[in-house]
Amino acid sequence: MNILVVGQGGREHALAWKIARSPLVTRLVCAPGNPGMAELAELAPVAAIDVAGQVELARRVAADLVVVGPEAALEAGLADALAAAGIPCFGASAAAARIETSKAFMKGFARRHGLPTADFEVVETVEAARTALGRRTPPYVVKADGLAAGKGVVIAESLGEATDAAGAMLGKAGARVVIEEFMTGQEVSLFVLSDGRTTIPFGSAQDHKRAFDGDAGPNTGGMGTYAPAPVFSAALEDEAMSAIAAPTIGGLAAEGAPYRGALFAGLMLTPTGVRLVEFNARFGDPETQVLMLRLESDIVPYLMACASGGLDQLPPPKWSGDAAICVVLAARGYPGLPLGGTRIGLPAGNLGEGVTVFHAGTALRDGDLVAAGGRVLNVCVRAPTLEQARERAYAAIARIDWPESFHRTDIGWRALSRPPQSV
Asked: Mind giving me the DSSP string for 82-119?
């Protein structure tokens, strides 16, 4: 099979890493890709949101399957254009992807289909936001309606801070904001695969959204993750599948937008049961990295079945009993304006037992590896225990020469209940 992976981040590097291991693959192309992906595949300089360019590339490489990584490409209609060209695509249509690309749509969908989620209001003016916030008690949850790279959520302790956040989000023409009830509990990421009819669970993880240790600082796209999450039992997964995942896939089909691809459900494990925080219409980042490390099955048949049907004919995916962890190395300034162009001294060869480094925001400049994004490297480890995985991850990070970076030193603290011994 010839496979095209669309995207250039850590998620896409992890997917390409796993796809490249399939005996079914004869040619792997990544567009636009990154320096790490260049070690696994051919790269093509086509932007993920260049719909016409990606369709033309898929034709040129005779792609049997296109795997779309980033949500922006789905919102742009890449899956729709590939379907019109008769090219199988692992990725949701623009209509189905609204489950992520519009939080207002997602919350309305949840209400229509009885999904357990936080109470909410959608507002379009600062005055309406102030009124809606005045009906709630702190902490206040304010969410931008559209895509925001994982940074469109503000949890504010004061009414003034919440109102200011809403005002900033409403500064764009046609913008909307979702004001939500604050939920308490631990948050877990559940992944499911769907071919539009059949839905199967495809792993879970627990991530760390805040920028700094102790869950301090602003929200980010994710500073690290680990799997499995001990708090997410098989019984809770069954509850989430029956109360949230299955009704969502069925509801989208009933509304004329059958879902094909990976659906990421952000869940809050509350005292009253599993509740939906948000959906992402693709694999998560950095959760995909630990999923791919733990997945024992060949991923390609599952991707193809989602694109073309027949997911119900495949056996349940097999997962390693090992734990996996991912620690994100970010450029200083992230999640604001990151410091770009700084040289990264990434040692050649093995960084330790079970260590895999995925590139999330890198580039080559005059032969040097440099930072070219906010989240730049993902240091990932699979090991028999989470404690071993974490120790090896931080030992590997200590060998990377990049003074302009920062990272959290407490990834996995919920499962291990203490910070790492050394960093």
From this structure: HHHTT--EES--HHHHHHHH-HHHHHHHHHHTT--B--
CA distance 294 to 290: 6
**Are residue 270 and residue 353 in the same domain, yes or no?**
no
Of 320, 272, 274, 273, residue with least CA distance to 294: 320
Q: Could you tell me if 162 and 272 lie in one domain?
A: no
CA distances for 392 relative to 291, 325, 379, 381, 399, angstroms: 18, 10, 10, 7, 11
Residue 343 is given by DSSP the state B
The pTM of the whole model exceeds 0.70: yes
Tens of pLDDT, residues 32-44 = 999 999 999 999 9
By residue count, the chain amounts to: 423
Q: Around Cβ 336, how many Cβ atoms within 10 Å? A: 10
Residue 422 lies in a domain: no
> Which residue is associated with the tokens 């600082």?
217
Which DSSP letter does residue 315 get?
A: P
- The residues pairing with 27 across neighbouring beta strands, listed in sequence order, are 2
Are 287 and 211 part of one and the same domain?
yes
Please give the residue range of the domain that contains residue 134. 120-180
| Count of Cβ atoms closer than 10 Å to residue 164 Cβ | 15
Q: Is residue 100 part of a domain?
A: no
Nearest to 178 by CA among 97, 105, 266: 105
pLDDT digits (tens, 9 = 90+) for 365-416: 999 999 999 999 999 999 999 999 999 999 999 999 999 999 999 999 999 8
Q: Which of 285, 272, 299, 93 is nearest to 193 (CA)?
A: 299
Half-sphere exposure of 192 (CA within 13 A, CB side): 26
Do 346 and 300 share a structural domain? no
How many distinct structural domains can be found in the chain?
Answer: 4
Last residue of a domain, one of 313, 338, 367: 313
